[in-house]
Write a structure and sequence with these properties.
Elements lengths: L4 E2 L11 E7 L9 H8 L7 H14 L4 H16 L3 E5 L6 H10 L4 E6 L9 H9 L19 E5 L6 H22 L5 E6 L3 H5 L4 H14 L9 E6 L13 H10 L4 E6 L7 H4 L1 H12 L3 E4 L7 H24 L8
């Protein structure tokens, strides 16, 4: 798996030479790799030593980040359901996007659906994945990040899929299961906080669609669990940056304090901005937010992450196969005019 490739039968389908490429943030396997990893995140810019030490501390508390392992399990599931080869590329850790793209070219891939495992479009996530993908081109040019025409194969880059019905269904199932258990343990109805990773305020001010999309996902997921009334859920942004500047809110801590002021004694958190367990879930929610809530006299529960659940696998596979079918239909209706990368 280290080369980023997952195939159903161990070899690419030579008849179609189509594939799926999953892109993710990446995460180091060992605490000792944190400093190198953070340099990748910042593009080589050194971070203050206290920030590096704090990230190392968080990783030690959770043991390790399972992001890479889970992403490969997701890829295996998507390959099994779709019947297509699935590759994994990470922006900040191994297997890097560039290495995976070169492997795909060696395998004879001629077209790939590229799906970021971050369903909401932001230049701070999806935009950076697109830029990393473009950087693998044989002759990088000063062009928009979405221009990947010089890649060794054509692509269909999915910019966002925050409202895909099967993604919403997968989140709603996790919400219903966890929330009902929390209510049973609390012997009463527990309010819900949906969360997504915060971004700098300047990003939103410049027209980034991220805030609108994350809030839309939360509303759709809540709508998929009608047992939860409209007034029983909130939305908050988590994991604000440690490097200063204004970040998008409200924060989870502010939202918990607001619920306490309303007389609540418990809260149920569902991170709809993430599709698998990693440090922002296992530390930020399970340790930091739970500790904060307990200090304020509230109990905190969390929805299980999507990880490699069948519902999530089916959502990603359906997204990819749907894009391939749409491209085939468009090509059939316009001979010689296929889909452009």
């Amino acid at each position: 798996m280290s080369d980023g490739r997952i195939t159903r039968a161990g070899a690419i389908d030579r008849a179609s030479r189509q594939a799926i490429l999953l892109l993710a943030h990446g995460s180091p396997d060992r605490v000792e790799d944190i400093a190198e990893y953070l340099r990748n995140v910042t593009g080589g810019r050194p971070l203050p030593e206290p920030i590096v030490r704090e990230v190392e501390h968080r990783y030690r508390l959770i043991g390790r980040s399972p992001l890479t392992e889970i992403t490969f399990r997701q890829a295996e599931g998507v390959s099994r359901v779709s019947g297509l080869p699935v590759y994994v590329g990470m922006r900040n850790w191994r297997p890097f996007i560039g290495d995976t793209v070169r492997k795909m070219a060696e395998d004879g891939v001629t077209h790939a659906v590229v799906i970021c495992l971050a369903p909401h479009n932001s230049r701070t996530s999806v935009g950076l994945y697109a830029r990393a993908l473009r950087a693998t081109a044989a002759s990088p040019r000063q062009v928009p990040a979405s221009d990947v025409a010089s890649l060794p194969f054509t692509i269909d880059f999915v910019e966002s899929w925050h409202d895909h019905p099967l993604l919403i269904k997968a989140f709603a199932q996790r919400l219903r299961e966890g929330w009902q258990r929390a209510c049973a343990e609390a012997a009463g109805r527990v309010p819900v906080i949906f969360t997504a990773h915060s971004v700098p305020l300047r990003t939103i001010a410049e027209g980034d669609p991220y805030e609108v999309q994350t809030r839309e996902t939360a509303a759709l997921v809540a709508g998929g669990v009608p047992e939860i009334a409209q007034g029983e859920w909130r939305f908050a942004f988590q994991s604000q940056g440690m490097s200063g500047g204004e970040w998008l809110g409200p924060t989870v801590e502010e939202t918990i304090l607001g619920l306490k002021a309303d007389g609540q004694t418990g809260v149920f958190v569902q991170p709809i901005g993430f599709v698998c367990d990693h440090v922002e879930v296992l530390y930020d929610i399970d340790i930091a937010f739970r500790r904060f809530a307990e200090e304020k006299g509230l109990r905190l529960w969390r929805a299980e992450s999507l990880n490699d659940s069948l519902e999530f696998i089916q959502a990603v596979a359906a997204l990819a196969v749907g894009r391939l079918r749409a491209a085939a239909m468009a090509s059939a209706g316009n001979p010689g005019g296929g889909q452009q990368p």
